[in-house]
Amino acid sequence: MVSLGCPKNRVDSEVMLGLLEQAGYQLTPEADDAEVLIVNTCGFINSAKQESIDTILEMNHYRETGQLKALVMAGCLSQRYQQTLWDDLPEVDAMVGTGEFHRIVEAVEGALNGTRPSFWGEMPVSGLAAPRKLTTPNYTAYLKIAEGCDHSCAFCAIPQMRGGYRSRPLQDIVAEAKRLVAQGVRELILIAQDSTIWGHDLYGHPELPRLLYALQEIPDLVFVRIMYSYPTQITPDLVRAMRDLPVVAPYLDMPLQHAHPELLQKMGRPFRRDKTDRVLGMIRDAIPDITLRTTFIVGFPGETDDHFQTLLNFIEEMRFDHVGIFTYSHEEGTRAEKLGDPVSEAVKQRRRREAMLVQRKLVGSVRGRHIGHVMPVLIEDMGDTVSVGRGATDAPGIDGVTYVKGRFSPGQIIPVKISGTREYDLLAEALM
To answer: In a 10 Å sphere around its CB, with 0-12 CB exposed, 13-18 middle and 19+ buried, how is residue 365 labelled?
Structure first.
């Protein structure tokens, strides 16, 4: 299995691996040993689409150099372009879209039998409860709480690939969380296209606080981390739950995409700066040690130097802990397609570098506020004299790490005192 793209795709890959293992297939981490290769593709932006196609063609070479008998294409790119890719990629022996990845065993069997099956329907969220083969370290797992998206962001093709928003029922999520914790998972990372709206389609209004209270009751669970929150759905009830529940990490990922109201309105995003300021203020007042991550897009059609300067000022003023900057990708089928792509690639890249430089200049003092604080750290790697871990301040793969003096085993959770910073990373001494 080669899994590309976001953590939501990764969960789908883990479900597919779990179903295949349950069906009697033997999994291998070595591509040249595999008789079946599955590429779970990403179709979000142009660079991801190209990576997916390149990976398919690269894996096809194992027909000559390895044991490959069947090549299966799955995921977002399969769902988005369906028949076009099916016709253009004769190398692929079976294709499964995001809606029916739970039929992966059927797809693999058909590929091996030469029937070249394809499945592109919309999967019910109950399929997410299938067995999973974790590809993360055994102490960390992503927990998908919903599928699809109802937002109409002008730049985004996710609804084309994932369908409308469908929340998983509370009991399904909690049951999977309990299974994962029983396997040794200590950190659950909640993911969806919009985590904060979870439950609105099932219960008539968002119910993320209710889910957090239910997860709090699971023994041995240490961290619950919320990713992909939407600013207009950050309610006082949610903030109180984050503040009051020990298991919920004081961490929130809230992609804002820009800071200028004119650009935000064109993007189809919340564009009232006063409301954004109130939300950020409410969060920080209630949880002073909160870690805030956000992302922005530069180079959206019509972005002027003045628009971009507003974004730079916003980054400097708000002092986020973690900031990701993406350049706009012109995507067919989105509402922004008709706007063209007037901002040159050179300008996009220059603006990205400038924005990241502003954040880099801030990060030392922003991260430095943790110095002297005591926090639990989940160890991920043990060196000769220093171990590497993460506390509540950092999500895996996208944020910094914490360097702890001493030798500690991966998966161990130890109390530390933060003693310094190294750009995006923290330095700490163990309190044991």
So the answer is: exposed
Summarised one tens digit per residue, pLDDT across range 222-269 is 999 999 999 889 999 999 999 999 999 999 999 999 999 999 999 999
Report the greatest alpha carbon distance in the chain. Answer: 63
pLDDT tens, position by position, 292-330? 999 999 999 999 999 999 999 999 999 999 999 999 999
C-alpha closest to that of 220 among 329, 101, 335, 139: 139
| Terminal Cα distance for the chain, rounded | 40
Instruction: Count Cβ atoms below 10 Å from residue 237 Cβ, excluding itself.
Output: 14
Architecture of 125-367 per CATH? Alpha-Beta Horseshoe (3.80)
Enumerate the CATH 3.40.50.12160 domain ranges in the chain, comma separated. Answer: 2-119
Cα 323 to chain centroid, rounded: 14
Question: Distance (Å, rounded) from C-alpha 287 to C-alpha 236?
Answer: 12
Asked if the model's pLDDT at residue 125 lies above 70, the reply is no
Q: Which residues are annotated as a binding site for [4Fe-4S] cluster?
A: 6, 42, 76, 149, 153, 156
Binding site membership: which residues?
6, 42, 76, 149, 153, 156
Give the pLDDT confidence of 325-362 residue by residue, as tens digits: 999 999 888 999 999 999 999 999 999 999 999 999 99
User: Which tokens in the block code for residue 27?
Assistant: 């999994």
